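Dear Dr. K.,

Following up on our conversation at the group meeting, I've run the structure prediction for GNAT family N-acetyltransferase from Martelella lutilitoris. I'm pasting the input sequence below exactly as I used it, so you can double-check it against your construct before we proceed with anything downstream. Let me know if the numbering doesn't match what you have in your notebook.
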Amino acid sequence: MKNHDVVIRPYAPEGDLEKLSRIWLDASLLAHPFIGEQRLLAQRALIEDRYLPSAETWVACVGGHPCGFISLLDTFIGGIFVAPDRQGLGIGRQLVAHALSLKGKLELEVYTANRQAVAFYIGLGFRELSRRPLDDDGYAFENARLRLIG
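The predicted C-alpha cells came back this morning:
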C-alpha cells in the first residue's frame, strides 16, 4: 500500500456503521487491554448509538474498503482508530493531517497506558496540556490531554 492509495471521505451511516464499529472494537482490544474485553464490548453499543452519529467522522479507505476513521467534536478528536492489520502504514497520520487541515488545531485525550498511541501523537507534534487520574467513567486509568496547532 502506498499513501496515495488512501482515500478519506465523509462517514456514511448506512454503509459504514457496522464496519467502523468492528474497526473500533478490534483496535480497542489491541490498544486498551487494561480496560477489559467486557467493558469494551459494552462500550461498543455507545459507539454505534451515540458517538458515531453525533460526531463529524471521516473514513480512511483503501480499495474502497474502510480501514480507519477519525471522529471530531469541533476541534476535539473523540476517537481515531485504524484496523490492526493496517496500523503502521501511515493511515492514522493521514487522518490527523486531514482533521488538522479542516480545523487548524486539534485536542484529544489518550490513556497514558497506551504508550504506542502517546508516542504516535507526540511524534506528530502534539504537546501535553494536562493529566487526570480517572477516565470518563471514574476508573483509575490516567488520561493525558494533548494539543496540536497547525
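Two things stood out to me. The longest helix spans residues 13-31. The helical segments are 13-31, 37-54, 91-103, 115-124.

Best regards,
J.T.
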